[in-house]
Specification:
mainly alpha, elongated
């Protein structure tokens, strides 16, 4: 697995874990914090996935 593929897997895993933690959060503040982390991980993942076709070709 290339570093790029490992990065994608990492951000997918972290986004899913953060979303799960948001659902299980004991307080509204904790829920919001985990939702924000999930949003940031998904944003980075989207950026990486946009770069994927170019990386696979080159």
């Amino acid at each position: 697995m290339s570093k790029f593929d490992a990065d994608i897997a990492y951000y997918r895993r972290r986004a899913a874990e953060s979303a799960e933690r948001a659902l299980a959060a004991p307080t509204p503040g904790a829920r919001l914090a985990h939702e924000e982390l999930a949003r940031l991980y998904r944003a980075r993942l989207a950026t990486l996935e946009e770069e994927l076709p170019a990386r696979r070709q080159g």
